[in-house]
C-alpha cells in the first residue's frame, strides 16, 4: 500500500513536475511563470481559471513563433511581460489575448508596435509600454484601443505622433509621454484626458490652441523641455487645469496674460516654474490664481519683485523662492498671504529685512520661514511680528551680530531655531526665557564666548538638541553649559565636527577663575582672537 502511494507520488511529480516548476499559483487566478520562451509554450500551461500571468525569464526572451491559433490565451485578463527578457511580437503578436485588459510591456526591447499585433477591437484598459525604443505612434495603431484608460509611453524614442492619434479614445485619462523626442504637440482632441506628461522631450514654444480640445485635463507636465515663452490664455484651452509643471525650461518671464481665464478665478492649484531664468516678478502677475496652493519659483534669477507681485494669492500655502538673486524685499510683498504655511527665501542675496515685508495682518498659518544662506545683517526687530505661530525659523549662515528681544518675544510657538554661522557675540538671557517651546537650537560657529547663566533659569524646558561648537567659548563657561545640558539630557556632542576635541567642543582657557559674562570685558581680554589662533 505504502509502496503504491510512493509510486503514485513519483508518477504525479513526473507528469506535473514541469508545470509546478514553471508556473506558480499566487492565488486569485494569478500565476507567475518562469523561463517561458514563447506564447505557444505559455498557451500549454494556461488553465481555465487563470486571470493574470507574469512571465519572468532570466535566460531567454519570449516570442510569438508559429502561426496557429492559441485559444488558451483568449481568457487571460492581465499579462505582465516586463521581466520576460525582451519580447519578439512577430506577425501575430498578442492577437490571441482577446480578453486582455492590462498589459505590461516595459523593458521589452520593442522598437515598433503594429495594429495587427493586437486584438481588434481590444479590451485593453491599462497599457504600459515604457522603457522601449518605440519611434512613432500611429492613428492606425491606436484605433483599436477604444477602451484604453491608462497609456504609458514614457522612456521611448517617440518623435512622431500622428495628429489626432488619440482622438477617438473616449475613455483615456492618463497619457504619459515623458522622456521621448517630441518637438511639437500634435495630440489633438481628447474628451476625457485628465493627466498628460510630455516632460523631458524636445518641445519648443507652442500655442495652447494645439491643446484646445482637452476640456477635462487636470495635470499638465512639461518640465525639462526647451520652452522659452508660454503663450497666453492657458485656461481657455484647459479650463480645468489644476497642476502645471514647466520646471527646467528656458522661460525668461512670467506673464499675467498666461493665466487669463474665462471666469474671474482660475482653477490652478499647483504651479511649478522652478529652474527657469525668470528675472522679474511683475505687479499682480498671479492675481487670477485664487486657488493656487503651491508656487515653486526656486532656482530662477529673480532679482526684482514688485510689492504687489503676490497680490490675490489668497489660498497660497507654500511659496518657494530659494536660490534666486533677491536682494530687496519690498514692503508688504507678503502681506495678506493669510493661507501661507511655508515660505522659503534661503540662498538669495537678502541683506535687510524691513519692518513691513510681511505686512500688518497676522499670518496665522505661517509655521515655517527659511531665511538661511543670505547676507542678512539688518533684521528689523518687528519684522516677524505678524507670524506669532511660527514653529521653524531658519537664519543659518547670515551676518547677524545681535538678536533683539522684541523679535523673539512674540514667537511663543517656536520649536526650531537655527542661527548658526552668524556673527553673534551675545544672547540675552531674556531671549532664552521666551523660547519655552524650543526643542532644537543651532548656535554653532558664531562669536559667543558665554551664555547667560542657565542654572537657575526655568527656560528652555523643551530643549532636546543644541549645537555649540565653533564658538570661542571660555572653557569655564562651556563647562557650565555642558553640565547644565547633561543634567537636562540635551544632546550637543557632534564629535565629527572639526570644532571638537574628543567629545568636547574646543574652548579658550582664560586667566579668570570664573565664567565672565560681560561682552566689553571679554573683548578686552581678546578671547575671540585667542580662539582664532587655536
Ligand atoms: C484575493 O482577492 C481578494 C478580494 O479581491 C483579496 O481580499 C485577497 O487579498 C486576494 N488574495 C491574494 C492572495 O491576492
Ligand atoms: C509594469 O512593470 C514595471 C516593472 O515590473 C512596474 O514598475 C510598473 O509599475 C508596471 N506598470 C503598471 C502599469 O503596472
Ligand atoms: C509611466 O511609467 C513611468 C516609468 O515606469 C513611471 O515613472 C510613471 O509614473 C508612469 N506614469 C504614470 C502616469 O503612471
Ligand atoms: C506643430 O503642430 C501644429 C498643430 O499640429 C502645427 O500647426 C504647427 O505648424 C507645428 N509646428 C511645428 C514647428 O512643427
Ligand atoms: C516638476 O518637475 C521637476 C523636474 O524638473 C520635478 O523635480 C518636480 O518634482 C515637479 N514638480 C511637481 C510638483 O511635480
Ligand atoms: C492687503 O490688504 C489691504 C487691505 O485689504 C490692502 O489695502 C492692500 O493693498 C493689500 N496689499 C497687498 C500687497 O495685497
Ligand atoms: C537630537 O538628540 C537626540 C538625542 O537626545 C538624537 O537621537 C537626535 O538624533 C538628535 N536630533 C538631531 C536633529 O540632531
TrEMBL record:
Designated gene of the protein: Dmel\CG32055
GO cellular component, one term: extracellular space
Name of the protein described by the UniProt record: Insulin-like growth factor-binding protein complex acid labile subunit
Gene3D superfamilies linked to this entry: Ribonuclease Inhibitor (3.80.10.10)
Annotated keywords: Leucine-rich repeat, Repeat, Signal
SMART domains recorded: LRR_TYP
Signal peptide as annotated in the record: 1-17
Amino acid at each position: 500500500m505504502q509502496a503504491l502511494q510512493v509510486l503514485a507520488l513519483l508518477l504525479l511529480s513526473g507528469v506535473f513536475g514541469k508545470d509546478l516548476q514553471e508556473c506558480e499559483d499566487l492565488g486569485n487566478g494569478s500565476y507567475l511563470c518562469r523561463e517561458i520562451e514563447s506564447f505557444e509554450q505559455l498557451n500549454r500551461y494556461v488553465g481555465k481559471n487563470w486571470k493574470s500571468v507574469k512571465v519572468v525569464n532570466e535566460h531567454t526572451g519570449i516570442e510569438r513563433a508559429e502561426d496557429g491559433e492559441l485559444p488558451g490565451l483568449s481568457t487571460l485578463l492581465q499579462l505582465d511581460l516586463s521581466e520576460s527578457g525582451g519580447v519578439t511580437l512577430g506577425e501575430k503578436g498578442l492577437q490571441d489575448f482577446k480578453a486582455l485588459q492590462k498589459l505590461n510591456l516595459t523593458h521589452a526591447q520593442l522598437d515598433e508596435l503594429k495594429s495587427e499585433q493586437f486584438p481588434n477591437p481590444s479590451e485593453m484598459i491599462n497599457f504600459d509600454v515604457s522603457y522601449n525604443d518605440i519611434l512613432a505612434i500611429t492613428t492606425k495603431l491606436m484605433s483599436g484601443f477604444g477602451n484604453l484608460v491608462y497609456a504609458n509611453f514614457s522612456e521611448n524614442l517617440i518623435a512622431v505622433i500622428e495628429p489626432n492619434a488619440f482622438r477617438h479614445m473616449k475613455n483615456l485619462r492618463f497619457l504619459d509621454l515623458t522622456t521621448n523626442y517630441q518637438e511639437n504637440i500634435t495630440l489633438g482632441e481628447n474628451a476625457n484626458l485628465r493627466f498628460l506628461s510630455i516632460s523631458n522631450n524636445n518641445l519648443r514654444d507652442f500655442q495652447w490652441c494645439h491643446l484646445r480640445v482637452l476640456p477635462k485635463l487636470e495635470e499638465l507636465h512639461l518640465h525639462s523641455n526647451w520652452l522659452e515663452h508660454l503663450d497666453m490664455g492657458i485656461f481657455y484651452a484647459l479650463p480645468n487645469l489644476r497642476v502645471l509643471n514647466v520646471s527646467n525650461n528656458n522661460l525668461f518671464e512670467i506673464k499675467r496674460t498666461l493665466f487669463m481665464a474665462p471666469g474671474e478665478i482660475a482653477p490652478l492649484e499647483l504651479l511649478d516654474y522652478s529652474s527657469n531664468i525668470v528675472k522679474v516678478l511683475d505687479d499682480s502677475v498671479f492675481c487670477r490664481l485664487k486657488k493656487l496652493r503651491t508656487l515653486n519659483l526656486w532656482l530662477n534669477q529673480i532679482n526684482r519683485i514688485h510689492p504687489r507681485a503676490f497680490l490675490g494669492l489668497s489660498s497660497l500655502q507654500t511659496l518657494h523662492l530659494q536660490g534666486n538673486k533677491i536682494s530687496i524685499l519690498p514692503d508688504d510683498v507678503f502681506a495678506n498671504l493669510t493661507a501661507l504655511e511655508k515660505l522659503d527665501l534661503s540662498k538669495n542675496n537678502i541683506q535687510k529685512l524691513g519692518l513691513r515685508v510681511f505686512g500688518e495682518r497676522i499670518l496665522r498659518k505661517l509655521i515655517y520661514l527659511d531665511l538661511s544662506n543670505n547676507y542678512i545683517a539688518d533684521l528689523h526687530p518687528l519684522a516677524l511680528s505678524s507670524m506669532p505661530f511660527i514653529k521653524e525659523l531658519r537664519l543659518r549662515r547670515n551676518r547677524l551680530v545681535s538678536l533683539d528681544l522684541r523679535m523673539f518675544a512674540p514667537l511663543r510657538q517656536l520649536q526650531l531655531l537655527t542661527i548658526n554661522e552668524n556673527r553673534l557675540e551675545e544672547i540675552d538671557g531674556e531671549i532664552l526665557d521666551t523660547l519655552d517651546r524650543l526643542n532644537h537650537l543651532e548656535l554653532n560657529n558664531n562669536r559667543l564666548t558665554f551664555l547667560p547663566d542657565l542654572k537657575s533659569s526655568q527656560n528652555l524646558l523643551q530643549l532636546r538638541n543644541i549645537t555649540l561648537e565653533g564658538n570661542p567659548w571660555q572653557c569655564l563657561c562651556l563647562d557650565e553649559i555642558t553640565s547644565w545640558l547633561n543634567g537636562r539630557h540635551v544632546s550637543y556632542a557632534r564629535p565629527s565636527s572639526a570644532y571638537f576635541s574628543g567629545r568636547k567642543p574646543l574652548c579658550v582657557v582664560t586667566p579668570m577663575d570664573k565664567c565672565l559674562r560681560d561682552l566689553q570685558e571679554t573683548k578686552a581680554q581678546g578671547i575671540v582672537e585667542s580662539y582664532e589662533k587655536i
